């Protein structure tokens, strides 16, 4: 068995000055936001807010200037993300494009698509969604059936995608589709990624309402959707290799353990300092958050050193989901029966209780994360 080596990573005075700057900005921008709205955390979308972050230089922070980036360090970006998440800022409009779609284009379409699209992402004006899952293909992405067939000057896509978060307001999807057969030996062969304009003829987006009654994700249908050759990302047939890179961008951020901060804040606000039961239960949650933060910062440190954080990032996601999924139970145990209907705690608890089951599904299920961890440790 191999050891899991997450090196401690500390932030310096310059990072803490940036943190102060972000806090001051958020204090003004989010002044009127209720705890119930903040509980939505990175599920809340507000394009005006995204544009303001872009104007401050807090999107695309680590990217090269030629892509509209600011050439700052991954740790500076980490501080900004941490503050946005802790405040429950409405970041979802730009989140996926900034986190994974534009970085994927910079890696695999650096001269064609990235210069066209990434600067708009860094300004907080262009939003993108993830086109991986399909009906009957979630964990097992190698079984996707959406197919692109080559035509003069481009490709024609037919099929559908499922659970596509944010497609209703996004400009583009990065879609993983089948362009060849799996050649009988390698199930991961014959897939490719395309940048699809969601306004293109033949694209239909239908809402799916989740447990909270919110419209966060969608079904997206492709009926003879034409995309030019230029919209092929990287090389035809390299889709599997590329999508695993995209997934490692997707899974390595602090949002994997900072999705329910508002419930912790509400519980701490309501806690009785003289009650030992409150102190022990909330102390345990805070200690878990502390450990997860060190691990998550360690992942950011690995990214800063150019190392691959796939195993520790999966561990943070798995353990982060466990801690956050346990928090509504802690809240019920400590405050249940004494929560004033319509109060801030009531609103935050209602939302968090219903949203946490999704934390061990989105971005890869618990079983898949544990499989990745086991492989990283040499156990399978
Ligand atoms: C809130 C939310 C947002 C999402 N947003 C997007 C999005 O924007 N774009 C997108 O493409 N997808 C998105 N998804 C879909 C998500 O990626 C899939 O739900 C997830 O990958 C699981 O796929 P599935 O739902 O098909 O379940 P399945 O893969 O069918 O899994 C069902 C169960 O079987 C288990 N299982 C499956 N395979 C194995 C295995 N090999 N070993 C052990 N256990 C296994 C799983 O862990 C799970 O418990 C989103 C999902 C949620 C909940």
Produce a short descriptive summary:
46% of the residues lie in helices and 14% in strands.
Summarize the structure in words.
There is one protein chain. The protein has 380 residues and is an alpha+beta fold. It has three domains: 13-127, Butyryl-Coa Dehydrogenase, subunit A, domain 1, CATH 1.10.540; 130-238, Butyryl-CoA Dehydrogenase, subunit A, domain 2, CATH 2.40.110.10; 245-376, Butyryl-CoA Dehydrogenase, subunit A, domain 3. Helix content is 46%, strand content 14%. The chain has helices at 13-29, 35-38, 47-56, 74-87, 92-108, 113-122, 239-251, 261-270, 276-304, 310-335, 344-355, 366-376, and strands at residues 128-131, 147-151, 154-161, 172-178, 191-197, 203-209, 215-228, 232-233. A four-stranded mixed beta sheet has the order 1-4-5-8, with helices on one face. The protein has a four-stranded antiparallel beta sheet with strand order 2-3-7-6, with no helix packed on it. Helix 8 runs antiparallel to helix 11 (344-355) and helix 9 runs antiparallel to helix 10. It is globular. The relative contact order is 0.12. The mean pLDDT is 95. The structure holds flavin-adenine dinucleotide. Residues 129-133, 138-139, 163-165, 217, 358, 361-362, 364-365, 367-368 line the site of flavin-adenine dinucleotide (FAD).
């Amino acid at each position: 068995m191999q050891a899991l080596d997450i090196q401690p990573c500390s932030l310096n005075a310059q990072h803490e000055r940036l943190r102060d700057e972000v806090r001051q900005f958020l204090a003004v921008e989010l002044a009127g936001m209720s705890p119930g709205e903040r509980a939505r955390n990175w599920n809340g979308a507000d394009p005006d807010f995204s544009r303001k972050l872009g104007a401050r230089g807090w999107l695309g922070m680590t990217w090269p200037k030629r892509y509209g980036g600011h050439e700052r360090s991954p740790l500076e970006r980490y501080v900004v993300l941490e503050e946005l998440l802790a405040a429950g800022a409405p970041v979802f409009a730009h989140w996926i494009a900034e986190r994974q779609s534009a970085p994927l284009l910079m890696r695999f379409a650096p001269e064609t698509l990235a210069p066209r699209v990434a600067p708009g992402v860094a300004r907080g004006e262009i939003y993108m969604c993830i086109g991986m899952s399909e009906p009957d293909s979630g964990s097992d992405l190698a079984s996707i059936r959406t197919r692109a067939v080559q035509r003069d000057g481009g490709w024609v896509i037919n099929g559908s995608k499922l659970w596509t978060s944010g497609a209703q307001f996004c400009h583009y999807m990065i879609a993983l589709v089948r362009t060849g057969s799996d050649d009988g030996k390698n199930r991961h062969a014959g897939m490719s990624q395309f940048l699809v304009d969601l306004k293109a003829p033949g694209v239909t987006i239908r809402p799916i309402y989740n447990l909270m009654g919110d419209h966060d994700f969608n079904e997206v249908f492709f009926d003879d959707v034409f995309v030019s050759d230029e919209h092929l990302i990287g090389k035809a047939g390299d889709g599997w290799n590329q999508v695993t890179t995209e997934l490692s961008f997707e899974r390595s951020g602090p949002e994997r353990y900072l999705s329910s901060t508002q419930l912790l804040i509400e519980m701490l606000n309501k806690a009785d300092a003289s009650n030992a039961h409150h102190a022990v239960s909330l102390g345990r949650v805070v200690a878990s958050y502390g450990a997860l933060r060190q691990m998550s910062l360690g992942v950011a440190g690995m990214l800063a050193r150019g190392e691959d954080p796939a195993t520790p990032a999966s561990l943070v996601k798995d353990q982060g989901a466990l801690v956050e999924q346990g928090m509504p139970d802690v809240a019920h145990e400590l405050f249940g029966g004494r929560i004033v209907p319509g109060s801030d705690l009531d609103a935050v608890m209602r939302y968090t209780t219903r949203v946490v089951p999704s934390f061990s599904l989105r971005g890869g299920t618990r079983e898949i994360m544990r499989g990745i961890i086991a492989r990283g440790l040499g156990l399978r």
